[in-house]
Amino acid sequence: MHKVRQAPSYRRRQDIHLCALYGVKMNKNLVTEQEQDQGRSSRGAMGKGMSTLALAMLMTTSAAFLAGCDSSSAAPPPVPEKKAEKKESADNKGIVRLEKASVKLLDIQPVAPASGKQLAWAPAQVAFVEDRTAAVSVPVAARVVSVQAHVGDVVKAGDVLATLVSPEALRTRHEVAAAKGAREVASVEAQRYQTMVDKGVGIDVDLRAAQAKLRESNQELSRAAGTAALLGGGDGDRLVLRAPRAGVIAERKATVGASMEAGAALFTIGDPTSMNVVAQVFESDLQAIRVGSPVQIEAPQITGPMTGKVRYLGATLDKDSRRASVVVDLDEQNAALRAGMQVRVGVQMSSQQQMMIPVTAVLIKDESRSVVFVQRSDNEFEARTVQLGRPVHGLVPVISGLQPGEKIVVRGGLLLDGAANQLL
């Protein structure tokens, strides 16, 4: 005969029934023993004590057995309820809950809409517009005798700046005088031969030679006069340097008694009404900057915003700083600007619409995954994986994973996930 396996629910009911029957039987036995103890009350104190001890042991055993039956008859938690708990934990994966007091330690900000105004900030310096700047140099080697202009002086065109003496200037002027004399002699000779030919007593070859010599003397005089004109004003060995245009003396290198080489610049004159800004931009930012890009200019010495546009980009990089010069034309001139003033400029890098978030909001998980904590309720935060672009000056573009207006944890994300790393 095959044994029939009983269902667990049937066996539990059977166990409960047996426990109940056993409990009734035990109670009857206890009552019988109590009556017997009362009948034997005439016995000695020792027998009565043993009876009481036996009664206590039986009651303890009965209570323990009944407790065991109750515990064995208790049904385990239903399987469907366990599945529901697992499902709830799966749904809440990546959700972190904080106490309200801890939430106050986080810096939470909404994601700004996509914008094309991404700026590359760089140090810059105010300078004169190169086309409106003049350098005053000495044409020949000379020694400074006197200086009439100083840095900051406003000058007009033709004003005397300095006086110098030069032996070469004296030689050049003598060459002009000699060329003039030679030209006069050649002119007389050519005229004489021309008269003789007209009278029929001259030779045509001699006339042509005299005319050629006259042309040579004229050329020599033009050369000497041109060289003397480069000397500027003055006569003899004196050189008088004058301002070629109106402006302000921006730089002076002339010192009384100093010997200056030919071509050395003694003064720089700039136009104070024509200033621009020269920024030093990193090579990594140059790819996104174009001629005509809008520029914001910040100067701590000047109140109010200043704007401009990129005029041209430098063709070479500084080998040490890896920066290139970017010249910015101002939209409006400001009388408070001075050449050499330190300012800060923000050049618009791209017209591409990009949604930017601070770099401090990004955490690195598993050494490769970028995560941003998004606030879902007052104290609930979701760890969301995002795809990012290349960080630029503390901001990083978001390619996917976030929507404008969502609130994210900008600072304090390590409080939510201490195992992550901060994006640098």
Textual characterization of the structure:
The longest helix is centred in the middle third of the chain and has 33 residues, at 167-199. It is elongated and about 125 Å long. It is built from 7 helices and 24 strands. The strands form 6 sheets. A 6-stranded antiparallel β-barrel has the order 3-12-15-14-13-16. The protein has a 5-stranded antiparallel sheet with strand order 1-20-19-18-24, with no helix packed on it. A 4-stranded antiparallel sheet has the order 4-11-9-6, with no helix packed on it. Helix 1 (8-39) packs antiparallel against helix 2 (45-73). Helix content is 33%, strand content 30%. It has 424 residues and is α+β, with helices and mostly antiparallel strands. A hairpin with a 4-residue loop joins strand 19 (369-375) and strand 20 (380-385).
